[in-house]
Amino acid sequence: MNENQPTREKLFSVSHRVDAAQRTRRNRHRGGILWLTGLSASGKSTLAVELELALFGMGCQVFMLDGDNVRHGLSADLGFSPADRAENIRRVGEVAALFAEAGTIVIAAFISPYRTDRDRIRARHPDYFHEIYLDAPIEVCERRDPKGLYRQARAGSLKEFTGVSAPYEPPFSPHLTIHTGAQTVDQSVKSLIDYVERRLRT
Amino acid sequence: MNENQPTREKLFSVSHRVDAAQRTRRNRHRGGILWLTGLSASGKSTLAVELELALFGMGCQVFMLDGDNVRHGLSADLGFSPADRAENIRRVGEVAALFAEAGTIVIAAFISPYRTDRDRIRARHPDYFHEIYLDAPIEVCERRDPKGLYRQARAGSLKEFTGVSAPYEPPFSPHLTIHTGAQTVDQSVKSLIDYVERRLRT
């Protein structure tokens, strides 16, 4: 699409781009989005970091997206209203799809509490999107409460906190569920690696 | 940053992420943004596609961003007003920086006519941003006019067309200038590859 109007700018003869098959041959895995969804303190960031390290060690092209590298940059213009949260998740989904197109396994770690937001990404990028539900009972998450967020939410000083004063809508049919309340980190990472080996390795 | 409030969510002990040095060792090049700016028909898309193919062939991790893969997805909510164009370029800059952080050489091909938009990316990501000016006289671009856009702009049916009815602000001090009005595509691609070898290869 040309920036001046919605047509593709082509000069001379434009060769085709590097395609997905070439990238897959090089990397020995397909690109894809591992979308980790779950309550605060369900283990998203921990597992994402450990999985990134493990996959990198296996020779994969891998990158992690989370609030840390998105909220200060791409979504710096967004706040925490419901509409802004939805827009944040939409953008992350689109960026993740660009990484997948580039052949990367992108690990997206976001609470992303609403089915409609996650399903929109799935609908737009069905070949890339893998929904991975980190299923931990809220009691476990609340007991962990590494930052005291649940405590603040119960006290009413944190508004619209997922699981306390705002809903979390679990996936109806996730590609993978990990019971992070019962499993250790190592067991959980192993489940994720097994999934990658089955679904993304070539 | 946690999605529920602006603090980092940490569970158990979170290991460090895969860092830039590890990615550079693996890829044998640093990540970076090759930002191609220039008039419509100055050769941005052509050079971006050819450069992507060439760098991929050399074993680099490389990906191209342009209107085609950004305007339909990440920036699908944006129109072509001045504010929306600026926001589009801002987002592209942030996404490009994420790719660079992932160790990729990202080629961004956008007219990006305003210095202030480009300088903002440079200021935010000085270690990644390489401004490459495709300098072709407007007479040459207008003679090429592969899509008849200049003709429409002159006739007044395309409003605010860069170089005709809207300004193009050339970079004051680009990292590299390519005279795409005088050089062949092959010569231009060679200049770009030489630049990558000097600046991003390790």
Q: Could you explain how this protein is built, in words?
A:
Two copies of one chain form a homodimer. Chain A has 202 residues and is an alpha/beta fold. Chain A has one domain (20-199): Rossmann fold. Chain A is 42% helix and 12% strand. Chain A is built from eight helices and five strands, in the order H-E-H-E-H-H-E-H-E-H-H-E-H. Chain A has helices at 20-27, 44-57, 67-70, 82-101, 115-124, 138-144, 149-155, 185-199; strands spanning 32-37, 62-66, 105-109, 129-134, 176-178. In chain A, strands 2-3-1-4-5 form a five-stranded parallel beta sheet, sandwiched between helices. In chain A, helix 2 crosses helix 8 (185-199) and helix 4 (82-101) runs parallel beside helix 5. The longest helix of chain A is centred in the middle third of the chain and has 20 residues, at 82-101. The two termini of chain A are 33 Å apart.
Strand neighbour order, sheet with most strands of chain A:
2-3-1-4-5
The name CATH uses for the topology of chain A is: Rossmann fold
Uncertain segments of chain A are 5-14
Series of secondary-structure elements of chain A, N-terminal to C-terminal: HEHEHHEHEHHEH
Helix-residue proportion of chain A: 40-55%
Q: What would you give as the CATH superfamily of chain A?
A: P-loop containing nucleotide triphosphate hydrolases
Q: What is the molecular shape of chain A?
A: globular
Q: What summary fits the major beta sheet of chain A?
A: 5 strands, parallel
Count the DSSP helices of chain A.
8
Radius of gyration of chain A, taken over Cα atoms and rounded to an integer in Å: 18 Å
* CATH architecture descriptor text of chain A: 3-Layer(aba) Sandwich
Q: Assembly type of the shown chains?
A: homodimer
Number of extended strands of chain A: 5
CATH class of chain A: Alpha Beta
Biggest interface, chains and residue tallies: A-B, 69 and 69 residues
Helix/strand class of chain A: alpha/beta
